[in-house]
Amino acid sequence: MTDLITPITMPKFGLAMTEGKIASWNIPPGGHVDAGQEIADIETTKITNGYESPASGTLRRQIATEGETLPVGALLGVLAEPAVNDADIDVFIAKFQTDFSSDSAASTQADHAEPVLVSVGELTLRVQEAGQGSGTPLLFIHGFGGDLTNWMLNQNSLSTDRRTIAFDLPGHGGSSKIVGDGKPATFAATAAALLDKLDVTAVHVVGHSLGGAIALELAKAFPQKVASLSLIAPAGLGQGINMDFIEGFISADRRKTLEPVLNYLVHDKTLISRKMIEDIIRFKRLDGALQSLQTIAQACFPNGRQADDIRPALTAFSGPSQIIWGAEDEILSPADAKGLPDTITVTILPQAGHMPQLENAPAVNAAITQFVK
């Protein structure tokens, strides 16, 4: 019966959040909860946020008390239907608490684990894997100027029952700076070759921004490899693009000029940390990095417009697909998701910008978890 029990855990509302306090419970024990309903108010050092329930059910237990401060991931409560008996819930809670305690050190180590370098043809790709299990693996594809750390609040959370794979695209992070023509289709071919190298036959693909366009090209060219598509603020569905971000990202060479460019990525500008800025500056100083970005920008965004219309690939994809977009995106417009078939789920997250997987990781992780199941 444990598969009918859903844990309510301390969410991570922002990049810097490590713990939160239960300001108040909005649902009493025994009360019914709908998915997305605010079940509690969580207080952090910055703000108090309503915590939306990841699933529907009955709030059978409140583990955390009002006023209690707990680390991210700690058990706050338990959802289950009335048919689940109390003994099963007791077993579930005891196991969760034991696993959370024993895995805390391992989780911290995983957060700082060094990725490995994988040779794929003439390329060397930086790859980070996490998780194991019988579920179809997840493949994360980041966007322009990003790297695998763009998934730092998502990969571990989504690897509880399946293998997950994040990697740096060519021209980015620790991967080779050879990008060919710089087009999404070329990167999709590289992603397919990486899956072959890792002996993975099919994956659920999560693609962000330009990574969304790459995911669509992967589904178009290698449909047998793609079990589903979760596209986060994807490129390829419209023509508009904030070229102040693209050009500024390429040209900015110090903190003073790069910080206002990175501010376009998020609704909450305080999330752009000094370390993030310094890491990007260091990356751009690597041999070939700047030229790679220029090649990609010229191929994908010529004359200030998106070059490729990949909307037909999305509508033609036979597997399940969903789109997640921040309502306050300043780089690509959420309006690009309009006019799609009703079979494609579109979720617009309020108070989130171009990177909702970082700004509202709990909502994004919950959407992907339910979707791939």
From TrEMBL:
Pfam families xrefs: Abhydrolase_1, Biotin_lipoyl
Domain named Lipoyl-binding: residues: 5-80
UniProt keywords, alphabetically: Acyltransferase, Transferase
Molecular-function GO term, any one: dihydrolipoyllysine-residue acetyltransferase activity
Highest taxon listed in the record's lineage: Bacteria
InterPro entries: AB_hydrolase_1, AB_hydrolase_fold, AB_hydrolase_sf, Biotin_lipoyl, Single_hybrid_motif
UniProt EC number: 2.3.1.12
Gene3D superfamilies: 2.40.50.100, alpha/beta hydrolase (3.40.50.1820)
Enzyme kind, highest EC tier: transferase
UniProt xrefs under PANTHER family: HYDROLASE, PUTATIVE (AFU_ORTHOLOGUE AFUA_2G14860)-RELATED (PTHR43798:SF33), MONOACYLGLYCEROL LIPASE (PTHR43798)
Protein name: Acetoin dehydrogenase dihydrolipoyllysine-residue acetyltransferase subunit
